[in-house]
Write a structure and sequence with these properties.
The chain is an all-alpha fold. It has helices at 15-25, 31-62, 70-87. The chain has one domain. It is built from three helices and no strands.
Length: 90
C-alpha cells in the first residue's frame, strides 16, 4: 500500500518530553502515533466546542425576549466597568 502522507519536521520545544514519555510508557509505539492521537483529540475538542457554540447561537435566536440595542449594552458595560475601577481605586 502506498504511503498517503509525507514526513514533516515539527519543533516541539518542551512538548517533546511529553511525547517521549508516552512512547517510553508503552502507550504508543512512536512519536507519530502520539501526534496523530493528539490531533484526533484536538479535532474532537474543536467539534464539541463548535457544537456547543452552535447550540448557544440557536438558543439566542430562538429567545422570544426583545433584542437589546448594542449601544444600550455597551453603555451598561462601560458603566459597570467604571464602577468596578472606581471600587478598586483605579
Amino acid at each position: 500500500m502506498p504511503r498517503t502522507s509525507r514526513p514533516i519536521t515539527v519543533t516541539l520545544g518542551d512538548l517533546q518530553e511529553h511525547i517521549e514519555a508516552r512512547v517510553r510508557s508503552g502507550a504508543y509505539a512512536s512519536a507519530s502515533e502520539v501526534v496523530r492521537a493528539a490531533i484526533r483529540a484536538l479535532d474532537r475538542e474543536e467539534a464539541a466546542l463548535n457544537d456547543w457554540l452552535h447550540r448557544k447561537v440557536e438558543e439566542a435566536f430562538a429567545d422570544p425576549r426583545p433584542n437589546v440595542p448594542a449601544a444600550e449594552v455597551f453603555k451598561k458595560l462601560r458603566a459597570h466597568h467604571a464602577e468596578r475601577m472606581k471600587a478598586e481605586g483605579k
